[in-house]
Amino acid sequence: MPTEIRFGAFVREITLQQQQISYNNLTPKVWHAADGSEIPYRAPKIHLRWIDAYRLIQPYISSRLMEQVQAVVPLALYLVLFQIFVLQQGVTDAGLITGGLVAVILGLMFFIEGLKVGLMPFGEALGNTLPAKATLPVVLSIVFLLGIGVTFAEPAIGALKAAGQIVQIESAPYLYAMLNEWAEVLVLGVGIGVGAAAILGTLRLLNGWSLKPLIYLSLIPILALTVFMQFDPELSKTLGLAWDSGAVTTGPVTVPLVLALGIGIAAAAGKGQSSLSGFGIVTLASLFPILSVQLLALYLAFTTTPAEIIAAAAHAQQALEPAWYSQTPWLEIIAGLRAIVPLVLFLLLVMWLILKEKLPEPGQIAYGITLAVIGMIMFNLGLSYGLAKLGGQSGSLIPAAFTAIEAVTHSPLYSAILGLSLALLFAWLLGFGATLAEPALNALGLTVETLTNGAFRKSLLMYAVSFGVAFGIALGVAKIIFDLPLAWLLIPGYLFAVILTYLSSEEFVNIAWDSAGVTTGPVTVPLVLAMGLGVGNAVDAIEGFGILSMASICPIISVMLTGLWIRWKVNRKQRYYDQAPKHASTQGKPA
């Protein structure tokens, strides 16, 4: 009887080319010494042609390079095209900006790869072994110090320092002092906030606390200080910086390292089995730095006066030339080393002195740390010459659409209503596109779809967050253009978010409050900050901060509203299925 086979299998068999090779032909010949002992085989070094080497590393590099190209190039093109076609202005220093953007792309590629290969193994090792070898107070102290260290290593933190050069000292003395003379203290204060958030987040994972009460308790002092500072004419100018600094902290260093440590500790203690493990730390790491910067502004106000700050700055400007280490490119190189090396030394000391463990795969970790340092230096240079320049330039030209500014002849270019509409539409599209392209949001969407069994789809979450950020950035730009008090935008927004938090389930609260953290990447933050400061300078606003803070609260609201709508739909469907059998049985009864 003939055997029937599939035609596809037949084609595969007749086209498959095989060559049998004896194993003995693959193994080296055994040589013996004069005494009869076997001589160990030493394989010769592999010599690759350059084309072979390229084929080996090309897939490795291209996938990592394309991630950063997709994050940087569309945003840069959008700003350039808007500037050329809508604002009818060329891009000044185009060659320098292009070189800076290339440095940003390469720097982020090296940095992220170094983070994964060199720094992330530290976080995982510490999280898994710390609870077994140290008491809880020691563990929490290390978590706190790590929170400070990762803040200094955050790429976008340099954008805050760069913003200090744009602020006018006469219009905002406290803000100028915090971003210049007190810049390192400011970053330390933000780091202390992240460290405190990491402690509370770890305790929450260990004890299974709900996130809702922690949000309420965190917002009470922050909103109270916001109201108090709003009524002080000088302190109110620092509110935008305080609220924006919360968005800067949740970047590619802080989130993975702190999460890896917190989840590792909770898992080692047998408390990390919940599907919501890991959610909440990002939220707290966004809120606590706001309080730290507010307290720093209050301390500055109590210890010095605006007149003293202006006098000290004038005296500093009359001083001799700045030292070599405070000039580019040495400034960026030293900043890159200072961001990574202390963090690595701290992790090494913990590994050797407390855990008494050897470094796993030291060669690989050294390679990763080297990549991270090189990447951070390149990113800092690209930030100075690329992102900050482009964002500041575009931001300073946007008001030409609706008002007269010196930099643009024949401005305003459009009528007031059309020009304002174009400016706000520009901001809306920038926020929407930048958020939708954020890789971290895509990862969060997959996690959320899994946790909610498909009820909250990845695409729905991504659009909810993107719409929220888009409206937030548009509101932030409107705040700068119309000189609106930031407190009167933030306080109603957060009070509405608190009401939605009370009405929402724990699952959606965790998702919504953490979604704000993934929207502020290392590319978006410097670009939006520089754009806001550029707009502020062009319209003679006192300060251009506040856009990032609005871009944080709006997605929280949009995601929770979407979550409530999904819950209503699920409950309605459930009620329908519950009532269907009753209705069928009623119809079947005789009249």
UniProtKB/TrEMBL annotation:
TM regions (residue ranges): 71-88, 94-113, 134-153, 185-206, 213-231, 251-269, 281-302, 333-355, 367-388, 413-437, 460-481, 487-504, 516-539, 545-566
Lineage top rank: taxon: Bacteria
Key words of the record: Membrane, Transmembrane, Transmembrane helix
Keyword Transmembrane: yes
Pfam families: DUF1538
Name of the featured protein: DUF1538 domain-containing protein
Organism: Thiothrix subterranea
